[in-house]
């Protein structure tokens, strides 16, 4: 483990390390993408944990829970009971695994896990209701989701897109759409699998 995540309980940090190893070993063994955990890297988790602690967002939305590895990072970063964390996972098996991991991590009361299609959720989500949005899902859907992703993001809110470097070819159309949109700024952060930071500046 590279250093300590100061401010996180040792037991929770140890669980994250176990989940990290589980994800890596699982993904090396299985061939079906639906069975892979496809977790973020630890340095990405730590970076965004720091961002969340600094931002103190009222509403956090994650699209793509998987086994809950990343969600536990976000939940740990939220220190105020009024802060809300919603995470979406369309695969029921992964959602059940995530629920067990949330319970073991002691964060189940901080997380609302919904098993449903992200596109449907975004269409009904209130406008400018999300302060921090982490997107780690089916990349082919992002262009179609973009109008609602932009709509639900609060002014000065932050959208972070995973796999912006290792899956860059799959995000070309999405990045072109973002670049053509007024009122947003973007920067590519070369950490982990590459994180695309998009901030809504208008509003």
Description:
This protein is α/β, with parallel strands linked by helices and 203 residues long. The protein has one domain: Rossmann fold (3-Layer(aba) Sandwich). The chain is built from seven helices and seven strands. The chain has a seven-stranded mixed β-sheet, sandwiched between helices. The protein starts with 9 loop residues before the first helix and ends with a strand.
Helices, strands, pairings?
Layout: H1 10-29, H2 42-55, E1 59-63, H3 69-77, E2 84-88, H4 92-105, E3 111-114, H5 118-124, E4 130-135, H6 142-152, E5 153-161, H7 172-179, E6 184-189, E7 195-200
Parallel strand pairs: 1-2, 1-4, 2-3, 4-5
Antiparallel strand pairs: 5-7, 6-7
CATH superfamily: Vaccinia Virus protein VP39
Judging from the principal axes of the Cα atoms, what is the shape?
A: globular
Distance between the termini: 41 Å
Order of the strands making up the biggest sheet: 3-2-1-4-5-7-6
CATH topology: Rossmann fold
Number of domains: 1
């Amino acid at each position: 483990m590279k250093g300590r995540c100061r401010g996180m309980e040792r037991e929770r940090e140890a669980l994250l390390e176990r989940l990290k190893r589980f994800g890596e070993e699982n993904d090396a063994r299985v061939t079906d993408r639906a069975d892979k955990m496809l977790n973020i890297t630890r340095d990405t988790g730590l970076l965004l944990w720091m961002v969340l602690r600094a931002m103190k967002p009222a509403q956090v939305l994650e699209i793509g829970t998987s086994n809950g590895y990343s969600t536990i990072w976000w939940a740990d970063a939220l220190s105020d009971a009024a802060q809300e964390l919603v995470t979406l996972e369309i695969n029921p098996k992964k959602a059940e695994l995530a629920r067990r991991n949330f319970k073991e991590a002691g964060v189940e009361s901080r997380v609302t896990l919904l098993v449903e299609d992200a596109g449907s959720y975004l269409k009904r989500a209130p406008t400018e209701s999300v302060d921090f949005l982490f997107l780690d899902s089916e990349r082919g859907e992002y262009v179609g989701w973009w109008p609602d992703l932009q709509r639900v993001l609060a002014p000065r809110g932050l959208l972070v897109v995973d796999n912006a470097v290792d899956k860059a070819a799959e995000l070309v159309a999405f990045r072109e759409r973002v670049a053509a949109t007024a009122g947003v700024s973007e920067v590519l952060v070369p950490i982990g699998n590459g994180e695309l930071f998009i901030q809504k500046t208008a509003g």
